[in-house]
Specification:
Elements lengths: L11 E6 L4 E3 L1 H9 L5 E5 L2 E6 L14 E3 L3 E4 L3 E5 L7 E3 L3 E4 L2
Antiparallel strand pairs: 1-4, 1-7, 2-5, 3-4, 6-9, 7-8
Length: 103
């Protein structure tokens, strides 16, 4: 997630689509909050919403989302997006992640 402007941004969020067969590691998300990488998170079905209270001018956030491969198969996740919390009419989308889990 990147703030490409010269101004600070208010509440910013990234909603990551998680392919079937994968489970987000809640313990790792809690560590990300404790370590200051994110301010808080929500699990929304097959999506993980990550929140930052603000982003500094030109700030870039790079994260690794830790998941557990639980069910073998080939899956495509829901699309992922990022936007300002209060202006969700301006959304940046990317296609869903594709994975193959081998038993």
């Amino acid at each position: 997630v990147q703030n490409k402007s010269d101004d600070s941004l208010p509440m910013t969020m990234a909603v990551i689509g998680v392919p079937g067969g994968l489970e987000p590691r809640i313990d790792k998300l809690k560590e990300m909050v404790k370590g200051g990488q994110i301010d808080f998170y929500e699990i929304l079905g097959r999506r993980v919403a990550l929140y930052w209270r603000f982003m500094a001018p030109n700030e870039k956030k790079t994260l690794l989302l830790d998941v557990l491969a639980a069910v073998p198969g080939t899956y495509t996740g829901p699309s992922s997006s990022t936007y300002l919390y209060y202006t969700n009419e301006h959304v940046w989308w990317v296609d869903g992640l594709k994975v193959e889990i081998i038993d």
